[in-house]
Amino acid sequence: MEMQELIDPFARLIEDVCTPAAIRAIETGGDKAGMWQAFSESGFLDALVAEYAGGAGLSLADAAPLVALLGAHAVPLPVGDTMVARALLAAAGLDAPDGPIAISTGSGAVPFATVASYVLYGSCEAPMLSAAPVEPTGVHHDVDGYTPGLDGKALRPVAAVLRALLISGAAGRVMDMTVAYSNERIQFGKPIGKQQAVQQQLSVLAEQAVAARIAAAIGARSGIPPRLADAAIAKHGASVAAGQIAAIAHAVHGAIGISEEYDLQLLTRRLHGWRLADGSEGYWSEVLGGLRSASPAIPTADFIRAA
Amino acid sequence: MRSMATFTGQLARFGVFETLTLSALPDEDEALRPALRAIIHEAIADLPLERRARSWQGFDAAFSRRLGQAGYLGLSLPTEYGGVGRGPFTRFVVVEELLSAGAPVAGHWIADRQSGPLILRFGTEAQRQFYLPRISKGEALFCIGMSEPGSGSDLASVRTRAVAQDDGGWLLNGQKIWTTNAMHSDYMIALVRTSGTGADRQQGLSQLIVDLKLPGVTIRPIVDLTGDAHFAEVFFEDVRLAPDALIGTEGQGWQQVTAELAFERSGPERIYSSVVLIDAWVRHLDAVGRRDSATLRLLGSLMAQLAVLREMSLAVTARLVAGESPVVEASLMKDLGTGFEQAVPQLIGDDLAGQPDEAIDPELYRALLYVTHIAPSFSLRGGTREILRGIIARGLGLR
Predict the structure, then answer these.
(1) Contacts of residue A134, Cβ cutoff 8 Å, sequence gap at least 6
(2) What ipTM did this prediction achieve?
(3) CATH value at residue A111
């Protein structure tokens, strides 16, 4: 199937149900059932489930643009996480329950945990579900939460790739918003985007957005579960980019960018949360450094080519 | 109040960047590595680390000829002109192997990367027949005459002038500076004014092939801060050029140069300039048995960045294979890549000197300081950081 035939309807679905107002409603504890039902009925939740198990059988690389769209629109529910969880459950011969599933990979905040019905833990080969209550982080308008007592460390690589894909989508959207704003905002008699100092910052933003997209694509290329080195490269690159992109976008937007009613914060708060989830750039660089130090005699070019 | 919905459906607006996607090297190109490695190993076995750290600044005319004889130059030139008839992917593999080892490639570098493709694209049949077979053998070495004392980033302000003569030839007067490898080269492809005045800016510029052995050409090497003399001043005093010195169309020099820059800005040389130093540092860490968390994080961070940069470089190469001229993408790639290359000596220097009680091989120290000192050039050659970001900004629709 041509991927574009899947991407376009998925983009329309998100645009219909995930407006900024709908995001704010869920972030403030509103009812999520309507938005979830739309995703559930769309069939996209089984995009990664093998065809023999009734799914669309997409590879993670195929589905990457779909996950990136979720990030680009700051969808406040674990749609991508549920796609991965349902694929893992099906592969293990388990029935997936209805309802959103978050993925817990450590003691830190789990993305979307407070708006999930279940939390996946265990490993790719032996996934397990918990319906135990989660603890909110207490961070303003956060949908993430703590899931104490669940061991999902083995799921960290696949969750890291998922997070990198979400970051890559949000990064592209933030770039669009920031470029558009800098073309509209007039200061000193001309759009601020005509100032070389601003142009140089936006160029760096664009570089980081492309780097995040390429990094995420590296993570997705080896499927589920991803190769450890691929996951490390993906999450490291996306996390580094997430921090820089959020900083530049806010710098260019000025004060309005940090106001609650302006939509930029819906994306940049996600960028920061996803950067920290499932291992930051520091965590994944240590993993990759460990792999590299295990074969010190081979040239770096060979190492990254085989990674 | 702006709403995100305003931007709906515009995610692919910057198609210029969306075209960069993961690309695989063809198997037949990957297969070139073992035989090429044998030739490289023979050439660099006795080279000290700080020589190999010179990367694509290292000059060895005999090695360039050896590569040409073995069929590793002129990779994208057609076989009827003595080339190998492959393409940018093949060149990516060969260049990656050469740079990874720290082989001295400067001799053929510019001819192979830029001048050959330029002559193929814009040259007459006679020019192709004359130059391309020798470029492919590593026997015609080229330099590029762009900068002048008054023209750096503002390249369109060049004042070197060639005046058309009655016989169809040209009389050349002026000066170029910072010309890499001019003193080792047989020819220069110079950007000069052939019509109009400086006020015409990009109009009236042309590219001329100058035989550097002609009367009236004076070359003075310039010593750099590492003690090398890799670039030079070149003076032209009433240099008489034949009609066939013109490459391409009179007055179209700017457009030709712009197209050429996509080749110059995106290759593996924009990510691997410091890789010999990285490899030596990795061996040092192994020798001293250092595997603490901070060290592994630095090591892994460099590997992760390089892995992404390599895929980006490969993605730009794929656009070249598709016949495009990805000028904006190449600028983006070069800015990111050279930023990485420049960070490497800073980070490795801090790592090594952060262990004052750990002995450092003097050869590693010399390589570290060589790369540290020459690193500013990484983001000067082929267009400064500020110029590249201006090109990216234009690609974003900001200017």
Answers:
(1) A102, A110, A113, A114, A116, A119, A145, A146, A147
(2) 0.97
(3) 1.10.540.10
